[in-house]
# Entry
Amino acid sequence: MTHACDQLDAFFDGELRPVDADAFQLHLGACRGCAEALHDRVMLQALRDDLAEASVPLPKASAAPSRRWLRAVPLVSTLALAACVAFVATWKTVKDPAPVSLPELAFLEEATRPVEVRLSYPPADAYRPYGVARGADQAHGHVPLELLAKLEKAHEYRGVAAGMLLSAEPARAHDYLTRAPASLDAEVDLAAVAIVQGQYEEALDRLDGALEKNPNHPQALWNQALAMRELHLPLAAAESFEKVASLHEPGWSDEAKRRADALKAEGADRAAQWTAARAALDAMVEDGAVPADAVVRAYPSYARFSLYDAVRTTASRDRILSFLPLAIRLEGGDEHAPLVRYVRSLADGDLARRARFVARVAALNATPLPPDGLAALVAELGAAGEDDLAFEAVALAHAWARFAAPIHRVATAHDDPWLRILDARASAYAAADQGEFTRAESTLRAALASCDASHFDYLCAGTRLQLADMLIQNLHALEAAVVVGDGLRQSEVQAPGVWRALAGDAAELAELRGAYPLMRAYFRDLLLHQPTCATRRHAHEAMAKERLLAMDRDGVARELAADETCEEPMTLDRAVVTTVLARMGDPRIDVRRARTDLAAARADFSPGERSFADVLLGVLSLREDPSAGKALVQRGLDATRARREDGTAQAALAWGDLNLALSAAREGDAAGALARMATDVGGAGDEACSLAVGLDYELAFAAARDAAGATLATFDDRIETAMPSPDQLVPGAIRAHLAGCPSVRVFAPPPVHGNPELLPADVAWSFHASGRRALPKSDAATLRRLLVSDVEPPAALGLARLDPWSAPPGSDATVTWLHGADATPRRVLDELATASEAEIDAHGLTDPGVSDAPLLALSPEPDGRYALTAAAIEARHFENHPVVVLAACRGGRVAPYFHETWSLPSALLRAGARVVLAASAPIPDAEARRFFDAVLQKIRAGAEPSVALRDVRVAWLRESGHEWVRTVLVFD
# Structure
């Protein structure tokens, strides 16, 4: 007890002078006794206020504003109060209390509210119309500080958070909400904070769970509408606002109806304008009626598209020349521009010869020809010298990949950027059809640069759709997301049909990375825009796959049945879901019909999809005829190996290998299962002390080879969760079989890869990452250490500064220390190229907009780039094969892809790293350096990395509070 402690009550009562209060606050930081005593006083005063409001008699306070009345209460009363405090604290945790009633204070002093979001804290949700001043930097209200102080004393953190959000302090609002008891309302308010911060996807995630529990939660529905509006999903947003309106809340319902009507009216007006413009431009193609100037001004690139069709599908010179003024207008008045020259060249052509073919080509728009008939027509047109009509026939049939030659001839003959872009698109289609996706992608990206420079929005949007579809087919989610985002913005007004296709791509991308609430939001809006059979099927099949991941068989069947009226060929997505349900023995699946439908649809699939179809046909046959089923699966796998750039083919390879390994384990062939899985992830499969683990929906297997070379396998077809327990994945018999191994190498594809609990903490083990080659043994004499620390990521990220190194990590000249502004992504990669050991102390972040795997937040380059991503790492080569420590939160997390292992560790290994140590969870800054230093010292002394990690981990687990070390993994 010090003299300063005597000032506690005066400080609590607000009786100290400001200078003395400041001094006492400093004292509180160093005196645990005073801090605890102050906490007790706050709790007791909050209780007194609560009980006073409930009319419970309490000892009267003295006339002075002091709270020393507590000291006058007899001991028994003090104990009773303490018990009551404990009871109230427990009740609040369990029941999610009603907010503190503070009738003497208005929560928000203004007559309008400064934010659009709604808060579930009732005093903050009293209706006020939304209103902000134009030109204000940031809208905010005035919440009395006295109110916030009372709320904080009462531990009414949701109320404090509401005040902070209304006062334009969303970060502090988030902090208070994380301190509040977990509840549905707190989750809704966290979503509101996310919307204010522009994190709309996070908001949808939180609101999705809340609305699943309470579909009519008014604040959740309101905020969901706002999030979807900001994601440019107006009809889905309007639908959520209409649900709020139906709840008949005073004020809120009327505003919700106005907002819903405005969103629908805007969409309807835009759709009406597009429909009228398209009708006018289609009429130009059909009967030569030149559209009004207003239509051309509103949709210049679609007008240009229609003009090409109009001049190619007529043999009348007068009609062609009547389009010259439109061509000149579209070229900005230049009478010698490419489009003008193209129109004149067609007018000067052999129109009598063209007349023989025009009607046949125009008819393709309504009556498509079969492939052989189209090929004959294109050949006939080419022989007659009618390349422009051949171009039109190919365009109408969308047969770009098969007939790129006439497109190229027309584009070459005319110096027209529009035609050159179409030539590039045809070339890209042909390259992709041959499995040359890198060439196809570079061709499309170059075409897009030219297209954007020419402001051909309609054509550019279609080109972006082609590129996005190809990237999604190859499962390049991050690159596709950028293309889709740009395409959605470009097509929303100028190409609504393309917008709908890109919205479907956006939903598919959300599904690919497991963002299911976002996926459902896109499909919901898409179905309101265009409830066609194809759209319904796409949506319900995607949602069936989501239900399958949740092991909800009834939900899967319900989604599949929702679009059974659509008489469309089986898609690959539907085939996957049907195959898994059939494998589960679901009686609702007709296996014979599934095989027949898939075999029929296979002919129209791309080469990669055909390989996947063969794998699926084989899996459908495995139980009835294992030999024939394996042969079919193997046929699909053999076809994939030559298509290394085809993501669908590689997904087929991964799924086929996994199912053959599962089949081997089912039959008791442990060596076969182990070899198949090891080969799939790039291992030998015949080494001692190895373990293979595979999981595919309801099936799991484990196969092990012990120190003596003996093998054992287990098989389980009763998995009921997306990620079973470690004991289910690796049963006790397998663990016992490996007990004599000094260390275990694990071969496991996603979703098992990266699971830190797969084997016990007292076992030395490592994950073998796919795609890396055998490396020479390290030479300790050439040790070159790299340390990255004290990084300075952009302040906008809001990351806490990590504990700094006060001095370089040793005086050895072989140590390179990158810190502060020098610790940029480029410098780190350059130094990794020659390092033999590296430790990177930095924040690990997950940002789907930057990387589909976690990234490292480093000091920014001059251009602002701060993120060290897996893609940037994989593109490099590390010649000295370093041991790399990623001392970063979640640095070992794996991207949510089933077809490949993609993470920071896998990228480092592919670049040439020998071993990577990384954690799959947050790690405490104060402990990380000491822990990893201990592991590295053992590795330098010659210990196997997995053994070194195990030994240090076990030692740390003997102490309390170090559970995080269980999440540190070795990848080799």
In short: The first helix runs from residue 8 to 13. The chain has a mean pLDDT of 84.
